[in-house]
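note to self — DONT lose this again. spent like an hour looking for the file last time. sequence + predicted structure for the chain T wanted, 380 res
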Amino acid sequence: MSQELSDQKIVSTDPPYYDNIGYADLSDFFYVWLRRSLRGVFPDLFATVAVPKAEELVATPYRHGSREKAEAFFLSGMTRAMHRLVEQAHPAFPVTIYYAFKQAESETDTGMASTGWETFLAAVIEAGFGVSGTWPMRTERGARSVSIGTNALASSIVLVCRRRSSDAPTATRREFLTCLQAELPPALEELLKCNIAPVDLRQACIGPGMAVFTRFSRVLEADGSPMPVRAALGLINAELDSFLSRHEGDLDRDTRFCLEWFKQFGFAQGPFGSAEVMSKAFDTSVDGMARDGTLVSRAGRVSLTPITGYTGDWAAAADSRRTVWEATHYMASALGTSGEESAARLYSSLDRSLTTPARDLGYRLYTICEQKGWSQEGTF
């Protein structure tokens, strides 16, 4: 913690990811062989039988006796490290911090939050940084083992931080929410225009959300206590969910039915009676959607047509019952089976009245899968 190398330097760093990776444990595999051949050359470096682990800055419960103690150890160490960066980094340039930790880990009273992100951001903020932005950077291979069959991050998240002003004002919870509701939607619109991958959107929205939160020295709850980072993340995620669902009422009736059915059943079967009642509420019909191929209805059971059912070239212009749901799934199918070029050709052939809502629906469907833990559906 006493290093001086970063004094008045531009800093870009990749810190430990909470409890995601046991760096020292993994290093033992190589260390034992290196020690055999290099102990005589670097006796101090290879003095121990295994890699030293006590001071490793990761939240490993078995080393500290409990998850709570491991979290406290990580927060304390990371805060000290961030304090050094605040003190030494060049004031004219932002500090960039890479962090590849998935955010939506557990549900709070206000929304989704993650212990890893919460603890890391708490350290960054406690040290005196303000977060001015987050941007995904494609650094993760889709074929790596952790990604197979899961909704693993497609990117590392780059936090852009600057030293927070010493005279930053305080705000009430209501004032924070008012600013968040005013500033987050335009920022999210810009992120969507950049074609942020759905798996990265929740991470990317931390930036503009925390930019509002860290603008203030403290955000006070109704009882006068400071709002913790966990609560702020929950509110930011709740605003993201509200943003993604804002245009559901503007979708065509078949798509609204499919979206509501998907929320309840995914691609699994449900009772015909429930589908019939729901279809009436959306002024559509089960038989009509079945004829169009959007769903399958047989033997008293109804299910949405899976992605694998959207094959071949879709002539949207000739489809008298074309829907945003179909556009989204045909493009997802093209992307999954034939790659980006095929999906791009289909996208360019569609009218804007379909493409923009289809993009928004894709994000909405992913967040539903993420919240329900449907990893298979979320990777379509």
